[in-house]
Amino acid sequence: MGVKFTALFENKYSTFEKVEYLKKQLKLEWSKKRSGDDSLDWLTIYCDDPKEHFEKYGHVGLMGLNGMVVNISPNLIEMQNEVDWFSFLKFFDTREEVRADCSVLAGFVGNPIYLPDSYTYSSFVFEGNTFDDVLSSLNNKYGEPVKDISCMLIQNELYWETTGYFIDSLI
Questions:
Q1: Which of 56, 78, 102, 168 shows the greatest Cβ crowding within 10 Å of its Cβ?
Q2: Positive or negative, the Cα torsion across 109, 113, 118, 123?
């Protein structure tokens, strides 16, 4: 299994009622974008009631089309999908499709940080960290964000690797 795409957003919808509103708005916007597809729905692992899950565990997930998963805590939102990180970095068309999905969410909560799931920042979502905590940690580990997404890919004939992170300007 390869490294997957991840985007982190600051969450401005900190209560379950606000998260429910965000879910409805995202379904509406993604449905417009994807010719009526409104497959975004709750993903609850530990209990059947999303509100109870949010209140008990401090987060809830949404699952959408093509393996998209959106994890929401009071402070952060993480968007993951099945797009391979290498493909996101290497292929412009793939990158633009993913960025289009991110721009829908960014319209509600602000610009995302792109990073590979191998950086393991999912734990920040589930541990109650803030967007500033993420930025501070990334800055300490990797320095300033790269200026262009393609700068994150280091490739030669034998291997590829990734470096840094990127803060997009979608809105």
A1: 78
A2: negative
Helices 92-109/16-33 angle, 10° precision? 140
Q: What is the pLDDT of residues 43-60, one digit of tens each?
A: 665 667 889 889 988 999
CA pair distance 75, 88, nearest whole angstrom: 26
Q: What whole-number percentage of the chain has pLDDT above 70?
A: 91
Burial zone of 115 (CB within 10 Å; 0-12 exposed, 13-18 middle, 19+ buried): buried
CB within 8 Å of 128: residues ≥ 6 apart = 58, 73, 74, 75
Instruction: Please report which confidence band the pLDDT of residue 79 belongs to, taking 50, 70 and 90 as the band edges.
Output: very high
Instruction: Classify the phi-psi angles of 66: left when phi > 0, otherwise alpha if psi is within -120 to 50, otherwise beta.
Output: left
- Measured CA distances, 32 to 29, 35, 88, 101, 123 (Å): 5, 6, 23, 12, 32
- CA-to-CA distance for 51 and 71, rounded, in angstroms? 14
Burial 25-34 (b: 16+ CB within 10 A, else e): ebbebbeeeb
What is the pLDDT confidence band of residue 157, given thresholds at 50, 70 and 90? confident
21: tokens are 């509103």
